[in-house]
Amino acid sequence: MRIELDDDLLAHVALVVFAKLRRNEPMLVSWTDPAGSPAQAWLHPHATIVARHTPGADTSIDRRRAERMMIAANSNLGLRLADDPAHLVAAPDAAKPVPA
Domain DUF7882: where (predicted)? Predict the structure, then answer.
């Protein structure tokens, strides 16, 4: 499965995901797809994660937002992308999962 996020959200999700995985901490990420179906992905340190930003996109990090996302990622519920106001589109892909 491939998940497409807007560049701003992607920058923040990638920061949180890569920080967790660098520390060998698996995490849960959940979202609602455009059809309204809930989806979840369990990310672990051995997963291949690829984050691709739009060339020239402003991907500056809002520290408070990143901190809120890290707190959520460390919780039992994991990082819920629906809690973050941003564009989210899920599209099937034969490649390995690409959450952010």
Answer: 2-83
Give the pair of three-digit tokens for residue 88: 């989210």
Domain ranges of the chain: 2-91
What does pTM read for this prediction? 0.77
Q: Which two tokens stand for residue 74?
A: 């460390």
DSSP structure class, residue 95: S
In 50-84, which positions are buried (b, 16+ CB within 10 angstroms) versus exposed (e)?
A: ebeeeeeeebeeeeebbeebbebbeeeebbbbeeb
Alpha-carbon distance values, 8 to 36, 44, 49, 60, 86 (Å):
22, 23, 17, 7, 8
Summarize pLDDT for 13-60 with one digit per residue, the tens: 999 999 999 999 999 999 887 788 888 999 999 988 888 888 988 889
Q: Can you read off the two tokens belonging to residue 68?
A: 């809120």
Q: Are 73 and 16 in contact (CB under 8 A)?
A: yes
